[in-house]
């Protein structure tokens, strides 16, 4: 399990790289899902 240590002043953090990667992938999938049209059809915007 790869991890990264971050020290900020008196605070000490250990970052789990695998967890961070999975979280970013999940957020990316959710963002792509939000951008897709509901009915699966793509409509061109007209002005």
Poorly predicted spans: none
The biggest beta sheet reads: 2 strands, antiparallel
Q: In order across it, which strands form the biggest sheet?
A: 1-2
Shape: elongated
Write down the Rg.
19 Å
Beta-strand percent range: 25-35%
Query: CA-to-CA gap between the ends?
Result: 52 Å
Structural class label: alpha+beta
The helical percent reads 40-55%
What is the count of DSSP helices, taking H or I runs of 4+ residues?
1
The average pLDDT value, as a whole number, equals 85
The secondary-structure element order is EEH
Write down how many β-strands occur, each being a DSSP E stretch of 2 or more residues: 2
How do the strands and helices of this protein lay out in sequence?
Blueprint: E1 3-8, E2 11-16, H1 17-35
Antiparallel strand pairs: 1-2
Describe the protein.
The structure is a single chain. The protein has 47 residues and is an alpha+beta fold. It has a domain at 3-34. The chain has 1 helix and 2 strands. A two-stranded antiparallel ribbon has the order 1-2. It starts with a strand and ends in a 12-residue tail after the last helix. The model has no long low-confidence stretch (mean pLDDT 85).
């Amino acid at each position: 399990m790869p991890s990264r240590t971050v020290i900020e002043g008196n605070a000490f953090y250990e970052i789990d790289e695998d967890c961070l990667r999975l979280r970013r992938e999940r957020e990316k999938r959710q963002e792509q899902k939000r951008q897709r049209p509901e009915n699966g059809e793509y409509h061109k915007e007209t002005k």
